[in-house]
Write a structure and sequence with these properties.
Elements lengths: L1 H36 L1 E9 L8 E9 L2 E6 L10 E4 L4 E4 L1 E6 L8 H5 L5 H17 L2 E6 L5 H8 L7 E4 L3 E3 L15 H4 L4 H5 L2 E3 L2 H14 L5 E4 L18 H13 L4 E7 H9 L4 E7 L2 H10 L2 E4 L11 H23 L3 E4 L13 H5 L8 H16 L23 E4 L13 H4 E6 L2 E5 L3
Parallel strand pairs: 1-4, 1-5, 6-7, 7-8, 9-10, 11-12, 12-13, 13-14, 14-15
Antiparallel strand pairs: 1-2, 2-3, 5-16, 16-17, 17-18
Keywords: Hydrolase
GO molecular function, one term: hydrolase activity, acting on carbon-nitrogen (but not peptide) bonds
Organism: Winogradskyella aurantia
Length: 455
């Protein structure tokens, strides 16, 4: 019996050793395969690094994992384990960044959003489709400036859905009668009647009045993972009940949002067009103004002096199906942006660019083309720098609340590997960035090749 036990013990030990060896070998094979798939060399590319006005010619870029490990003018040795992408003199540039999107509101129409049959499954289906299309247009990172995008972001980060990195704001925070008060005509005030509006239940907005409610709303968004806070500081063109010219939120209410954000190491961005609204917001400590098409030089000087970002757009007066009220409200904003961009550039304000598409999913296909609307005031280099390096600097303002750790918007060693291989030189022909299907030969996000149409 003792001998039988000893034999069993010996066999067990032998089995354990074999299993351990097998596991180590198998693990080594998996690691080797993983290393091979995660090591990529872009060979013989001309680099637009996001900061320099000329291409850096004849470079080799080594990507390992999700970062750029090395850049060299000489070929990398020992590259047998790497996947080599032959650039043949094409342009390697950072992924594009749009700092004012609404992943949900931009993926559904007004009719869909107000439909009584709308559910989470429909929202995910519609937003996932648009998120993948956005990534395939070369936008590897975006800042969502209001809406229920947390679930989409989680699905993208887990690899369930393809899409850009998302810096979410969460529900827009608005006063009663403000730009984020999205109640239907038959919906009463929560404060007086005790029932949240449908938009609030959806996670689209918070209607918050007074310092305490603004603090709570901001903290709710931060709890769910907001990377910055979005407050409505003035009227808007896509809402029915607030004229464009009105100022929203008192100084104390605005300061409450700023205090909540700063306690979490991040910042507040405000929706505002007019000088009055923007001055109040800036004095309250807001770090970024969205829109600003109706501000004056004195307010721009204040923005410049305080180091505040101006994140603006190139809106157009009319799109198919736009209702007459929205068209009329947008008219002064369109006129104002013709003055804003050159004035802000001349005064060297910190500028960022975004699209701000709402309720018109078909408009998303124009995302790249909207960058070209800057040609009237900016050189190709200035446009490319704005939509890569500069926009990335604004994303970095989220500090420790940034959902992705690392440097974006540049092609340099140790930066995150969000890259586009372009057929041609966009510094000479900026039109190329509006042709992503044909001209963006390779798109990489976080070290993963999303698209490759090279032979």
């Amino acid at each position: 019996m003792s001998k039988f036990k000893n034999n069993n013990v010996k066999q067990s030990i032998k089995d354990l050793i074999v299993t351990a060896i097998y596991t180590l070998v198998f693990h080594g094979v998996i690691m080797a395969q993983s290393s091979q798939s995660n090591t990529i060399i872009f060979e013989n590319v001309n680099i637009f690094d996001g900061k320099t006005s000329k291409l850096i010619p004849n470079q080799n870029v080594l990507v390992e994992g999700n970062r750029i490990l090395a850049i060299s003018s000489t070929a990398f040795k020992n590259k047998a384990a790497a996947r080599v992408i032959k650039g043949e003199g094409k342009t390697l540039m950072p992924g594009l960044i749009d700092v004012h999107v609404h992943m949900v509101f931009g993926a559904l129409t007004t009719e869909e959003l107000t439909s009584p049959t709308l559910n989470k499954e429909t929202i995910m289906e519609k937003t996932a489709l648009q998120a993948e299309k956005m990534l395939l247009r070369g936008f590897t990172a975006v800042r969502d400036m209001g809406g229920p995008s947390f679930a989409l972001k989680t699905a993208i980060d887990k690899g369930v859905v393809k899409g850009p990195r998302i810096w979410p704001s969460g529900a827009m925070i608005s006063q009663t009668s403000g730009h984020g008060d999205l109640r239907m005509p038959d919906e009463k005030s929560r404060r007086f009647f005790g029932k949240p509006s449908r938009a609030e239940l959806l996670g689209a907005s918070f209607i918050a009045d007074g310092r305490d409610e603004v603090l709570t709303a901001a903290r709710e968004n931060l709890r769910f993972g907001a990377s910055q806070i979005k407050l409505m500081a003035g009227g808007g063109t896509s809402s029915a009940y607030d004229p464009v010219d009105v100022t929203q939120y008192t100084f104390d209410e605005m300061k409450a949002g700023v205090d909540a954000a700063e306690d979490w190491g991040t910042y507040v961005a405000v929706h505002a067009y007019t000088s009055r609204a923007i001055k109040r917001a800036v004095e309250a400590g807001v770090k970024c103004v969205e829109h600003g098409q109706l501000l004056d030089k004195a307010t721009l000087r204040l923005i410049k002096r305080k180091g505040v970002w101006l994140s603006s757009q190139n809106l157009i007066e009319d799109t198919p199906g736009m209702d007459s009220l929205r068209r009329a409200k947008r008219k002064p904003v369109i006129e104002g942006q013709q003055k804003l961009w050159p004035m802000a550039k001349e005064m060297k304000v910190k500028l960022a660019w975004g699209t701000d598409f709402l309720f018109e999913p078909w408009l998303n296909e124009e995302q790249n083309a909207y960058m070209l609307k800057l040609k009237k005031w900016f050189t190709p280099y200035e446009i490319l720098k704005m939509v890569t390096h500069d926009n990335a600097q604004l994303l970095a303002l989220s500090g420790l609340r940034s959902p992705y750790k690392g440097t974006l918007g540049v092609v340099e060693e140790n930066a995150l590997a969000d890259l586009i291989l372009v057929d041609g030189n966009p510094l000479e022909n900026i039109e190329l960035i509006a042709q992503p299907a044909e001209r963006f030969l390779v798109i990489m996000k976080d070290g993963e090749i999303i698209k490759n149409i090279l032979p």
